[in-house]
Design brief:
single chain; 190 residues; alpha/beta; Rossmann fold; 5-stranded parallel β-sheet; globular; binds BIS(adenosine)-5'-tetraphosphate
């Protein structure tokens, strides 16, 4: 079973590359950002709570996103593997994911981190904000707050996977197809 974590700051290309990996490898895509935006669109209590935090560039509480991922894993017992996109974003989430996968007799195969500098991230997200309708893409101040959240709470997750010898980083700047080719070379499984 191939279980891949796509890692990187907001705007690094995680969602973009996940779509290409799904087409090639037939894995199940689990994006916590997409699931949360789905909850917001449906106007659920969880969505209303999450919206306040997301619009302000903050992370949603660990227990909320861990519960969402646990439900999705249970809902896909026959999956050939998963792409985790935007999850885990804290060490507590990474530890919880290890436990959830252990309970299913599987584990994370590897983490691929997309490396992109802050200036490029801000440019990409502001560009996407012109059409995405996402409040968190529309305001440079919120984008900088998201990058700050990433630097303070999410970067330690890379260390967590480095200690398990599962971490590889890739240059996330350049043509999307070239970056995808680099990921496929690292993953080497589909
Ligand atoms: P996400 O939905 O994960 O948002 P993201 O990081 O902005 O998306 P992504 O990184 O996938 O976008 P992509 O680079 O593909 O999270 C949103 C919010 O949800 C978080 O701030 C947080 O509040 C909450 N949340 C989600 N998960 C959570 C968790 N686990 N714990 C707590 N809170 C959580 O795309 C960016 C743009 O770049 C696109 O327009 C794309 O076309 C472009 N692009 C991609 N590759 C490019 C390239 N090579 N060159 C030029 N442009 C490129």
């Amino acid at each position: 079973m191939l279980n891949l974590v796509l890692f990187g700051p907001p705007g690094a290309g995680k969602g973009t590359q996940s779509q290409k990996l799904i087409e090639k490898c037939g894995l199940i895509h689990l994006s916590t950002g997409d699931i949360l935006r789905g909850e917001i669109a449906q106007g659920t209590t969880l969505g209303l709570e999450a919206k306040k935090l997301m619009d302000d560039g903050k992370l949603v509480p660990d227990e909320v996103v861990i519960g969402m991922i646990s439900n999705k894993l249970d809902a896909n017992p026959e999956a050939p593997g998963f792409i985790f996109d935007g999850f885990p974003r804290t060490v507590a989430q990474a530890e919880a994911l290890d436990t959830l996968l252990e309970g299913k007799n599987t584990a994370i195969s590897s983490m691929v981190a997309l490396v992109v500098d802050d200036e490029e991230l801000e440019k990409r997200l502001l560009e996407r904000g012109k059409t995405s309708g996402r409040p968190d893409d529309a305001n440079p101040e919120i984008i900088r707050k998201r990058i700050h959240e990433y630097n303070s709470k999410t970067t330690p997750v890379a260390e967590f996977y480095k200690q398990q010898n599962k971490y590889t980083s890739i240059n996330g700047i350049g043509p999307i197809d070239q970056i995808f080719a680099d990921i496929v070379e690292v993953v080497d499984a589909c």
